[in-house]
Specification:
Blueprint: E1 13-15, E2 21-23, H1 24-33, E3 51-52, H2 54-66
Antiparallel strand pairs: 1-2, 1-3
Length: 72
């Protein structure tokens, strides 16, 4: 339930074609600064390929409802 870049709990999760989920803002910043490559796999990646990960968003929201201590 954490972003692979920021290591924070996901708030706006997006999934890449390779199946890895990141925080939207973090992966967009990575693409801007580092280039069009996925940080974990090294595969080519563009912002247009990112898709909201609704399943993960629902899981995180439910977790935070039950574990208020985890929300920042």
């Amino acid at each position: 339930m954490c972003c692979k870049i920021t290591l924070d709990i996901l708030k706006d999760p997006v999934i890449t074609p390779s199946g890895i989920t990141y925080e939207r803002e973090a992966i967009l910043e990575h693409l801007k600064k580092v280039g069009r490559v996925e940080p974990i796999t090294g595969y080519p990646l563009t912002a247009e390929q990112l898709v909201t990960n609704y399943a993960m968003k629902e899981v995180v929201e439910e977790f935070l409802k039950e574990n208020k201590w985890a929300a920042k």
